[in-house]
Amino acid sequence: MKKFMIVLFLLITAGESYSLPSKFDLREHGRVTSVKHQGIPGPCWVFAAIGAMESNWLTKRLGKVPDLSELQIAFYCYRDGMKQRNFTSRIKSGTLSLEGQVFMTVAMMSRLSGPTDEKSLPYSTTLDDSQKRALTRKAPEKYKRSMRLRDAYFLSGNNTLNDSAKKSLIMNHGAIVASIYSDPNTYHTISNHYTYFNNTHGRSTNHDVLLAGWDDDFPRENFSPRPERNGAWLVKNSWGTMRGSEGGYFWMPYEQYNTGGTAFIVERDNKRLKHYGHDDLGFCKSARYSWCANVFKVTGKMESLKEVSFYTLMNNSAYEVYVYHHGKKFPARPVDGEIIASVKGTQEYAGYHTVNLDERFTLREGEYFSVVLRLAGGFVPAEMKVKGYSENAEVNRNESWFSADGVKWTDGKNIGANACVKAFSLSRM
Predict the structure, then answer these.
(1) pLDDT at 143
(2) For residue range 49-108, what is the model confidence (pLDDT) as tens digits?
(3) For the chain, give me the number of helices (H) and strands (E)?
(4) Rounded to 10 degrees, what is the CA torsion of 197, 198, 204, 207?
(5) 69 and 216 within one domain
């Protein structure tokens, strides 16, 4: 799991303040899927993200036990037929061994490019060149979606001491993604428990896993070396069920350095749902503005505007969203036109959020509309070129706009940025 240099302002504190149990295990509630085997170094980030989505589906009781395709994300994040949707331009050979992180999964899922079922695109670590070419000729959104990503809640930085926030996310939303430093020499079987504790690599991380529960009284004597206090996380790994004595799981002390803590929120898919967005690679960097906007041209004959989505950069972030209708004339500014919908609120967690529009408005082919976002804090999320991550980001004139005051607007082309704001409509015909 490679750590990309992305400028983030994610300041999460503890979530819900209700009393948390001293012990909790998602397995006992049927809220996690089976342990998978990634087979080669590299794609742990995909297996963790997929596992989190599957766990949320079961937590929300949305249907039968899912089995999602890891290959769809692992392959198309790097080998999409559209260059501007490929992360990092320095791809020369395979893709499954390439490292990544949850922001890539969110970017791909947020534009309705998945996820699909495992049976539609089975996982394989031995794709030959002809198979890769065949996959590249098919866009990821052409596979039948099994569900839809609606939100992703992010914890950031060293959350080793922020146990209650992680526990709240696990209880409410299912298994969460976390990053640790994995060293084969520091896994042990002690007192019939498969355990892991590494206190020698400081603030380094190299492996994504899932936190699937906890035990505040888990004895520190079960670890080698011993941590300072009792208590441990139940960790779901992606190395198959034969590793260790816990069927693919292990216990990790609260004191183990880890970053992340991402919950994926999914819902049943709507086949009529349509996506409008310019940020194919999602949130890459923060831009020093309070307002951002995207202008879209309607491509369907008749559509009903349903939802908007955006990222927030810190916890308890206040937001305002306004949707303007411009008719068939391209606007001079994204705020020139008739306001047809608006929504305001506060998002408890930093991350990616989808919000419903109370007002439904019919859009017709050839018309323009804009989605305008204001965030408190002086920064807005943007898709920009970041070396080693998003060099393929494509920024066009007259698509994204940024503003300090909501009055004077700068074309995103001038600053090399797309606004991370999307719209979703339902086809009427």
Answers:
(1) 97
(2) 999 999 999 999 999 999 999 999 999 999 999 999 999 877 665 678 888 999 999 999
(3) 6, 22
(4) -50
(5) yes
Question: How many other C-beta atoms are found inside a 10 Å radius of the C-beta of residue 159?
Answer: 17
In a domain, 214, yes or no: yes
CATH number, position 239: 3.90.70.10
Q: Which amino acid is at 410?
A: T
**Same-domain check for residues 186 and 332:** no
Kindly report, residue by residue over 133-167, the tens digit of the pLDDT.
999 999 999 999 999 999 999 986 545 557 899 99
For 192, the token pair is 């019939």
Report the distance separating Cα 322 and Cα 370, nearest Å. 8
| Domain hosting residue 236, numbered range | 23-264
- Alpha carbon 185 to its chain centroid, in Å, reads 31
Domain end residue (candidates: 264, 285, 316): 264
Q: Looking at the structure, do residues 126 and 181 belong to the same domain, yes or no?
A: yes
Q: Please tell me the distance from the alpha carbon of residue 106 to that of residue 55, in angstroms, as a whole number.
A: 16
Residue 61: CA atoms inside 13 Å, Cβ hemisphere, count?
A: 1
Residues of the chain by 3-state class (helix, strand, coil), percent to 5? 15, 35, 50
Q: Is 290 in the same domain as 243?
A: no
Beta partners for residue 411, in sequence order: 401
The whole-angstrom separation of Cα 143 and Cα 311 is 26
User: Which of 264, 294, 315 is the endpoint of a domain?
Assistant: 264
Taking every pair of Cα atoms in the chain, the longest distance, rounded to a whole number of angstroms, is 71
Domain harbouring 411, CATH code: 2.60.120.820
Residue 6 lies in a domain: no
- Sequence-ordered list of residues with C-beta below 8 angstroms from that of 328, at least 6 positions apart, any chain: 366, 367, 368
Residue 417 tokens read as 């940025």
Whether residue 208 lies inside any domain: the answer is yes
pLDDT < 50 regions, the chain: 2-17, 158
Give dist(CA 345, CA 321) in Å, integer: 9
Which residue from 142, 396, 402, 101 is spatially nearest to 278, judged by alpha carbons? 396
Query: Residue 409 belongs to what H/E stretch?
Result: strand 409-411
Q: What does the DSSP 8-state code read for residue 184?
A: G
The number of folded domains in the chain is: 2
State both tokens at 351.
Answer: 């991350």
**The model scores a pTM over 0.90:** yes
Going along 231-301, which residue ranges are E strands? 232-236, 249-253, 259-267, 273-276, 285-287, 291-297
Enter the tokens of residue 254. 């609260």
